[in-house]
Amino acid sequence: MPEQEPKVRAKNFNEVPFGYTPELAQLEASRCLQCKKPKCIEGCPVEIDIPVFVKLILDGDFIGAARKLKERNSLPAVCGRVCPQEDQCEKVCIVGKKDEPVAIGRMERFAADWEREKGEVFVPAKATSTGKKVAVVGSGPAGLTVAGDLILKGDEVTIFEALHKTGGVLIYGIPEFRLPKAVVQAEVNYLERLGVKVEVDCVIGRIETVDELLQEYDAVFLGLGAGLPQFMNIPGENLCGIYSANEYLTRSNLMKAYLFPEYDTPIARGKNVAVFGAGNVAMDSARTALRLGADTVRIIYRRSREEMPARIEEVHHAEEEGVQFYLLTAPTRFFGNDNGWVTGMECLRMELGEPDESGRRRPVPIKGSEFKLECDMAVVAIGAGANPLLPTQTPGLELNKRGYIVADLENGKTSKPGVWAGGDIVTGSATVILAMGAGRKAANSIHDYLMNK
Amino acid sequence: MGGIDPSAGTIDLIFQVVGKSTALLRTLNVGDNITDIIGPLGKPTHVEKLGTVICVGGGTGVAVMYPITKAYKEAGNHVIAIIGSRTKDLLILEEEMKAASHDLRVTTDDGSYGHHGFVTDVLRQILDERKDVKLIVGIGPVPMMKFLCKMTKEYGVKTMVSLNPIMVDATGMCGACRVSVGGKTRFCCVDGPEFDGHEVDYDELVKRQRAYLTEEKASMDRFTATGR
């Protein structure tokens, strides 16, 4: 797949992979064996009929391929870009046993982009109106999937979003160079064309409670995401220039701070940046810092390469662009100047001991290994938890001890009648496609419930 | 927020032009609109009948202090209000604060009106005279709240303050508004904005508020020069 050169792309916010041309897409489609018992479908959290859409690409019916995708996946342009296909469909591809697996994700992206760019977005017919109303709280991948599924089944759907733009993590978390915001907006526009109503700037839990929603709507879906930033709680962490990844990425992605002063939100443009963590969010933060003009960007992670949670592709992109990796390293405290700005930190070297509750080997500090590193900006990307704003305002909604909503993973039902939940607010930080899978299951369960009410 | 009128369905917002956003607000005329206002956010002010309460407002902080002062009076407290500004022209809501309290004192830094000095001068006088003050609420620029709390700690009177760090989403998802209270990090947008004034790290707050002075000036200069 042709990509922007690392040195060039580390200075711009354009997408890294250029995308397939029709010739490349068809060439790749010809590699698919059209297996009688397709393993790839089993690997897909939303069970896309992969061999069929691939065959449509091979036959040159790109629009047909996009429509096939949309039967099971309401956000194919998003998933084609951000799904960890290497852990899902492509992992179990038969061709992958001897060779590179069929590039299912790249073909999905191609078909979805083709449909959008040719302006031929097909709006399928909806089932007869059921007269039932559903409130979807949160316009991230889980909420968008629930909305897309239920509107087709004939239910009335209103999405409530706390921010002023829809998409959730798709718009505030994932950078422009991995997922163009125009793509996200096109997906939401598609839902609005299907008849989904969207209310932004609505903080459910404050402007209205879930109980108040239940008086007007027949069911409520909570797709709140993992919106509580985690800090390391070490001395100096409140110095200026130290951001949670949520804040850093929200300023850059949602508020377009990378275009300051054309857009009004500022963002610190550190020259010597430290990013703590090694998940996709840490990679996104590090690569954003490069694009904002940093000379040095270091990922600082307390475990080793094997334990890094980020997609290999994202680590690879980061390394190519010049991000340095300080593994088996953890900060103990930050130093600052008289103006309250961070100037550096003290770190400790780590070694790996016995596995902890997550199953990964526990990092153990090596005594006496303290050393100092300079930095003028830092991003804490060590994870996000459950934002308590709505859950604590909703009586009867059972939460687990870490504040996540307890929900049946098979159907999304919570302990509160009429209320479903799915995505990161149930599982903790995970992926877009898993949130969508949870949304799919919840939508089926909600619709059943509405029809039997 | 300066006031509410539920029957009319309106709220009053008082603002001082400091940067681009407030400069933009000033360009609006009756009948114009902005996209949205979100609220109420954070924790509601806790108001109860305690006895004698002193409400101290400095500068634009008086706007925040006003509805709280009214609420304490309506709850049956004996309310003494102290408001101050740098100079007479910057004093706001004097009549309203008079009506919202039982005893209003006014100060100006330059002596152009009322007592010549700071709100803390008057507060000290009152605390020396009476020993029945149950609560002090202080809202204003960070240095004012800092010195006010330093003083009230000497007298051992509980003091609540209202903090105004930089905020981004205001729903607790980013941590931009984090403040140190009692050695712990709190998000002002969800845990506040009101905190125990004796526990707040004001020096840290001031520095965090100044984090974008350069960019804020650049935005304002650009707006002044080009209107965008």
Mean pLDDT of chain B: 95
Compute the separation of the termini of chain B in Å: 26 Å
Multimeric state = heterodimer
Uncertain residue segments of chain B: none
Overall radius of gyration of chain B: 18 Å
**Tally of contiguous helical segments of chain B:** 8
Overall strand count of chain B: 11
Give the helix level of chain B as a range of percent. 25-40%
Mean model confidence by pLDDT of chain A: 94
Provide an overview of this structure.
- The complex is a heterodimer of chains A (453) and B (228).
- Chain A is an alpha/beta fold and 453 residues long.
- Chain A is built from 16 helices and 16 strands.
- Chain A has helices at residues 6-9, 22-29, 39-43, 50-58, 62-72, 76-82, 104-117, 141-152, 169-172, 181-194, 210-216, 245-254, 280-291, 312-321, 424-427, 432-451, and strands at 133-137, 156-160, 197-199, 219-222, 228-229, 242-244, 272-276, 296-300, 324-326, 329-336, 342-355, 361-365, 371-374, 377-380, 384-385, 419-421.
- In chain A, a hairpin with a 5-residue loop joins β10 and β11 (342-355).
- The longest helix of chain A is centred in the last third of the chain and has 20 residues, at 432-451.
- Chain B has 228 residues and is an alpha/beta fold.
- Chain B has a 7-stranded mixed sheet with strand order 6-5-4-3-7-8-11, with helices on both faces.
- In chain B, β7 (133-139), α5 (142-155) and β8 (159-162) form a beta-alpha-beta unit.
- The mean pLDDT of chain B is 95.
- The interface between A and B is medium-sized, with 37 and 31 residues.
